[in-house]
Amino acid sequence: MTDLFSRKARSLTGTVRVPGDKSISHRALIMGTMAIGQSRISGLLEGEDVLNTAQAMNAMGAEITREKEGDWLVHGVGIGGLIQPEKPLDMGNSGTGARLIMGLVSSYPFQTVFTGDASLSGRPMKRVTDPLSKFGAGFSGAEGMTLPLTVTGIMDPLPIEYELPVASAQVKSAILLAALNTPGKTTVIEPTPTRDHTERMFAHFGVPIEINGKAITVTGQPDLTAREMWVPADPSSAAFPTVAALITPGSDIIIENVGMNPSRTGLYATLREMGADISFVNERLECGESVADIHVRHSKLTGITVPLGRAPSMIDEYPILCIAASFAKGDTVMRGLSELRVKESDRIAVMVSGLKACGVTVAEHEDGMTVTGSDSIKGGAQVTTHLDHRIAMSFLTLGMGTDRPVSVDDGSVIETSFPGFTALMNGLGAQIGEADQ
Ligand code: S3P
Description:
By secondary structure, this protein is an alpha+beta fold. It folds into 2 domains: 4-20 and 232-434, Alpha-beta prism (UDP-n-acetylglucosamine1-carboxyvinyl-transferase, Chain); 22-230, Enolpyruvate transferase domain (UDP-n-acetylglucosamine1-carboxyvinyl-transferase, Chain). 29% of the residues lie in helices and 27% in strands. It has helices spanning 22-34, 48-59, 95-106, 126-134, 169-180, 197-205, 235-247, 266-273, 318-326, 347-357, 389-398, 421-428; strands at residues 4-7, 13-16, 36-42, 63-68, 71-77, 89-90, 111-115, 138-142, 146-152, 161-163, 185-189, 209-212, 215-219, 228-230, 252-259, 277-286, 289-297, 331-334, 361-365, 368-372, 382-383, 406-408, 431-434. Bound molecules: shikimate-3-phosphate. Shikimate-3-phosphate (S3P) is lined by residues 23, 96, 168-170, 173, 194-195, 315-316, 339.
């Protein structure tokens, strides 16, 4: 555990590049494994979550090598070519890695055991095991269908049609990945659109995929050949320097090459509605994903009621939105977010208690929170991260604007998604350090 603190920053200035997109990085490694031949990935996130997915693919037959920072080669085995891993797959902190790979192995005739850290071991897996059982796979997990969990895949999977009860890209993707080695057409119907990186990646590799409104249909067992993949910077990671610049007077920063997939950019729309000076420059399309540089200047923010339907496009950004809201004029109302209770931590409870400890006025709701902003926030508290990277980075961002420093008990969890966070933020002008310095 590394105890980190953050104290009031002077203005943040400069141009930075945050690490690669976590969602796309997992999918790039998996799809490289599903193709025959050698795929190159540029810009891969080298965070712990993604490295665990690389190890899992390696344990099932792919050869994965790192050429240089962010540049990786995947020698794939092709659809149908996975082999049973000899040991349990340790997915660490990663819900995405665990759920996507559970889907992938469901349509292979072998057993796979999944383990994870204390946070992942408390997260619900029934949402994926329910639909995957319909393909014919079997599951046995700890109480309440949690990790450690064994998947008994099926030799002759049956294609399914499944209507998702929750808006979840992880569940949708688990089903689509199971469909890859299933003969015939599998259809998933989403209640609300969620991030569509799996669909885009399938199209990039030539998997037969049709999208009709909310229904996504994949025809299984295609032959895939290797492709080049390019991973944009993660808009969910760019959110931290963005909010830091917004709340720090005199700030003016650029974050380069950020993924602008509309299913991921809800935070930026929300911040602009709150009065944020954010512009997107140099917009372009790379490897089926839109990308832009984000220009952010310090801004006076005003609270809003975040539209309910926006949640899927910013589901990971509510913790950092709470920090922006703490400095905004009036109330920011965030509702319809019960999913936040089953993320890496219960993000509603953990944000509310951390904000209160730092002197922010906040009300907890069963499905969200209302933050009342202020010009002056006392800070001075130590916040428990509960093995949640976004909680750690959010409170370190809060400390950049509080009267007294804010500390977090465990900064090491940041490695799961944003290696180099402290150096990048300090390079812009932040003052984050190890608490015993
Ligand atoms: C992800 C989907 C989201 C998100 C997670 C990454 C993905 O989870 O919270 O960080 O890569 O598919 P849900 O789909 O469960 O909402």
